[in-house]
Amino acid sequence: MHDVLIRERLGPIERIWLNRPEQENCLNDAIYEGLTRAFREIALDDSVGAVILTGKGSAFSRSADGDEIGEKYFGSRSAYRAFLTRVRDLHVLMQSVPRPIIAAVNGVASMGGIELALACDLIVASSEASLGDAHPGGVGGGGASQTLREAVGTRMTRWLLFTGELLTAQRAFEVGLVQQVYPAAGFQDSVLALAEKISARRLGDSLARVKALTIAREPTLADRELEIGHSVDHYFDPRTSQGLDDALADDRAENEGTKTP
Length: 261
Known about the structure:
4-stranded mixed beta sheet; 6-stranded mixed beta sheet; 2-enoyl-CoA Hydratase, Chain A, domain 1; alpha/beta; single chain; about 15% strand
């Protein structure tokens, strides 16, 4: 079994790779545990100037791993709530790390993947990337209903949640979700150059001070708890369960070539 995270040190830059390319880097317990451990260590390492979080293969992260998360956490409302609280705690940890964290979105970032990217300080994207929420029915649980508003405002957040649209990298840049778009060819080199540029501007703990001074006053933990509550109610609503079952049945039929037009 290969490591689901790869940590790479490049001078003052720590690059973390999500490493489940065959599963489009879907997030599972091992990744959440690895990221929590990594960011706790980085927070205490003064030699780190900046962090890059990116994905191996063609995706940044499509979502949380539906099979694993479903099997482990959808048996009860309390188990699912505990999972969402764990995700929230990782995102809060990332926001408290006194280092700039850059989400380098190399491919699709949706559902749990966009939630993870939004927990970073900056999002930059490959020209071939696509970004959006796309949770079933528009209700997630990892905070995007709150963190998207800081990035793109209320109306664009509603657009993304209502429609489930995945934006092109250029469109994501235009609405403020992405801070820079780089050509797909050489994308990782461009992100590394950006991280090195940011790190080189550090004077003492100045980057930590910038992060502290500019941290969003919202969402609060209470705001995040509100989304968690709605998510639990949503996914344990029989109407949602039936809708998901019908969608999966349609997908299976389409894959088998038997779907009725």
